[in-house]
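#structure-requests
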Amino acid sequence: MGLPSNLAPDEASPEWMNKGDNGWQLTAATLVGLQCVPGLVILYGGMVKKKWAINSAFMALYAFASVLICWVGWGYGMSFGDKLVAFWGKPYVALDEKYLLGQAFLGYLPTASMVFFQFVFAAITPILIAGALLGRMNFIAWMLFVPLWHTFSYTIGAFSIWCPEGWLSKLGVIDFAGGYVIHLSSGVAGFTAAYWVGPRLDKDRERFPPNNILMMLAGAGLLWMGWTGFNGGAPYTASTDASLAVLNTHVCTATSLLTWLVLDMSVFGKPSVIGAVNGMITGLVCITPGAGVVQCWAAILMGLTSGSVPWYTMTVLHKKIKFLRHVDDTFAVFHTHALAGILGGILTGFFAVPKLCRLFYLVPGWERYIGLAYGLQTGRTSAGLRQMGAQLAGIGFIVCLNIVMTSLVCLFIKLIVPLRLEEEVLQIGDYAIHGEEAYAVWDDEEKYENTQVNSAYDADEYPSVVSKTMSEFQMV
């Protein structure tokens, strides 16, 4: 008895491909892409001061496009290709149809699906880094930073942890969907880059209100719902483990958000919307390294931790440590991504269930993946301690990698263009950089006339910028 015609293999659907898995993988990749465009585009655009709305949103949009070209040009091979050294793959172009239509190195998928799915992961990482740099970074410097950092930092972390040939992969580090590769990396790199770029204007650091909280919430909602694909796509199959990962993701996130909200109300007396968004993000980040390998009750405990520890470090400890105050981390990615990623990695090393690890990895030697809690319970304490050691080794490597490589990238760019915008441009924001404003309610002619009569910018104080602005209008 033959298969139904819609399931029978043909040239476009070879025997090794599972249509359901491939369909889910493309859907999951699209959900992650929507986290970036438009999710983080409108989250950043709404969460910053009005004069920075366009610049902040455009930094995210540019990074998404730039990473795609790098990814198919050389990044995918450096992250998942043949081993060059223990922590890095050989670069190669992922554009040939013979290669893209073949079976991926994992799962019953064509390589094209794997390339696209891993691209959106690679793309969101520098966009998260941008969260630490908004409101002062030179856009040309950002255009150079994204491909350089992607090439010399992201690909090393991805190969080391996710590629079967990577040294941390062989060590047994559990990073289900990017708690280390994406979030710890972006948090440390963002904080490091913020140090080299320098701070915003003093008045922007003192007061930086969102220009559109409803738009910010819309972006946050896309980020949250898009995480269904972020963690649900990590097994590369439409499996029971993928379902558990999705449920754990949302349970942890809701718990973290509510924990942060309760702490805000208890200490400050008001339920903060921005605080709730921060709690949401820390929950999403914390569950990511262990989404499909921990019990649902463990996801609640992880949410309680991610909603309380980063809250304390951000609202209390940050003010007490001089170095944290000195570095202008615009959206506190150090707390929301680096710290939450570290918590998630450690808690994954403690709560990882051997059976769930087997379902996820499906490789010989899966027995080595065991959380410390289950090692203590089953008499395999040494195995549990070994897993915790592997998790800590992964944290140490990613932290050191991103401090060093991000610093080298920033120092190199500084030789070509300034990292930070000029003071007079910082005073004006979007219009001085892009010649556009986010919430213009008149046309250009009216704006030109109004600017001549009653300039919003003091020509005596910022002569070069106003002169440039006037000449642009005359050209129009």
